[in-house]
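Internal ticket #5521
Category: modeling
Description: The requester needs a full-assembly model to guide mutagenesis choices. All entity lines are attached below as received. Residue total reported by intake: 605.
Assigned to: D.W.
Attached entities:
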Amino acid sequence: MQQTFTKAMARNIFLGGAAFFLIIYLVLTVDSWRQIPIRDHASQMSPAAERGKYLMDSNNCIGCHTINGEGAYYAPELGNVYTRRGPDFIKAWIKAQPIGGYRQMPHFNFSDKDLDDITAYLQWVSRINTNHWPPNIQG
Amino acid sequence: MNFASQRVAKPYFIGALALFAGQIIFGLIAGMQYLDGSFLFPAFPFSVIRTVHTNLLIVWLLMAFMGAAYYIVPEEAQTELHSPRLALLTFWVFLIAGVLTILGYLFVPYSQLAAMTGNAILPTMGRGYLEQPLPTKIGIVLVALSLLFNVTMTLAKGRKTSLNIVLVAGLWGLALLFLPAFYFPVDTVKASYSWWWVVHGWVEGDWELILSALLGFILVRMTGVDREIIEKWMYIIIAMTLISGIIGIGHHYYYTGAPEYWIWLGSIFSAMEPVPFLMLVVFAVRMLISRRHEYPNHAALLWAIGTPVMAFLGAGFWGFMITLAPVQYYTHGTNFTAAHGHLAFFGAYAMVSLSIISYAMPHLRGRMANSLRAQRWEMTGFWIMVISMFVIALALTGAGIVTVFLQRMGEHPISFMGVQYQERVFFWIREVAGFTFFSGLVAYLTSFFVGGDPVAAHGATVPRGR
Ligand code: HEM
Ligand code: HEM
Ligand SMILES: [Fe+2]
């Protein structure tokens, strides 16, 4: 490194660069926060869907599945499972577990109401505007 | 070792290595369940095993970073640690809380764990890496506060080197970036958006500061190169990290519901994220070439050069392959991501932890370097682990590519489970390489127990107080 480029200059680039891009990020996040509720139809999230989400979180479904590509890669994508399988299949599927096969899903002791709520949440998720992801119905 | 209080680092390093071994065992179980879903099922479903695997990873890395801080901060500040007793107490609190949490995952159904720990009052559970019940999350904050208090007080009363300032600032950032773990909005898109503040904010932001400071420290010590030069490099590297990485977080916002402009912003900025990793390689190589003396701990030198190289491959190269929006459209959420996650986490953060342990443990055991025999065991472990992890990454990349072609492209896409079945060969390769990785870890751990004549502390060629 040349003598003319000092450590203090390097430090200032670090501090200045970090501050500059942090501010830009904050501004973009404010804008994203404004747009997200429109893109995901937040107003249509019913109390049932909210409860369904809580059930999915507190049973760690994403410990095996992905939702919109985030989670684990052991089991099928759930972001679009409502479109792929429909509500009746989903409820029957969860009730029937475990059914064997080379990978397994546990049995959860969900009531019929629980299953309705989970399906309501999965329906809400399937409507999020994800820029046309996944590429096809298989997720 | 110049200060008695640095000794508190030792339990942290030992604890970290023990948890590392646990992490790998659970990885092997998870890998087995990929091939045979009935393995340990229904007693221990995949989700439980995976959670234990990833949580042990985070805990042992944090433990290694803390040990590193308790070792480095006093030495850099040229003064004793503010409170060694607090540091020791914190170690036991952290270890016990960590072990209890793991036992909770293993033996209490997750929904019951949530019910028992007040998750309904403040929901935080059910997100990747942040699966911990509320009391554990609060415990992590308290442990972090104790660490921050201790190292900040030490820094305040001692010499303020740039290395030390960046290290301590990095630890503050680590703690602050954990706080979004307590924010889990019902709006799934906002939840995902803010989850990345923790995950991306750590691995592609703040932790790179810690990585650079740790590597900088051992290079100062082992090469004898002028600290001014090393610290200048460090600042440039971490400047590039944040300049590319802050807006680069957009590579997680393409297909998860965030606005469309992130497709452009994320692609452009995250494409620059490999640069600081490349600079880290150039930096380490140049410092080692211009070293002023031979350092007797060859194993530590190997780790110090291996870390930036593997970090560049795993984070820089593998990350780049999946970061541009048109590519990620097909690779998002496949085992390609897992390939990158493994190689990057191992190459950058596991390896820098093992580097600092390799450098510091001989000093903590009252010697300059281990015997040549012990070093040979350690370096054998290095090569076996590095090569195995590389094979793991290649196998997962293969699986990811098959998913892209069969499930994500073409006129007649095959279902997820159908494709996974066809990928079994890759998951077998991953599992076998996982076992060789484990044998490498055993060789590495063995190096702590083989005898021979260590290099004495006095024959020291390292100039003190640089
Ligand atoms: C050596 C044997 C190992 C095996 C067999 C193994 C296996 C696994 C498996 C099966 C998963 C779950 C993947 C999924 O979600 O479908 C996983 C996740 C993960 N493992 Fe490992 N692992 C091993 C070592 C490691 C090491 C050494 C590290 C890092 C230092 C690591 C870091 C991770 C991370 C970060 C994840 C989450 C990945 C993601 O979500 O993309 N693993 N591992
Ligand atoms: C040492 C630094 C890094 C580590 C430890 C790391 C680790 C990870 C992990 C564990 C994931 C999976 C997260 C999940 O569970 O969903 C991930 C995702 C990702 N990483 Fe990294 N990463 C690092 C650096 C980078 C860099 C430098 C780039 C870009 C050049 C990058 C690009 C990505 C992308 C695009 C994804 C999302 C993949 C997807 O769509 O599924 N990473 N990273
Ligand atoms: Fe990222």
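Resolution: model delivered.
Comment from assignee: Chain B is about 75% helix and 0% strand.
Ticket closed.
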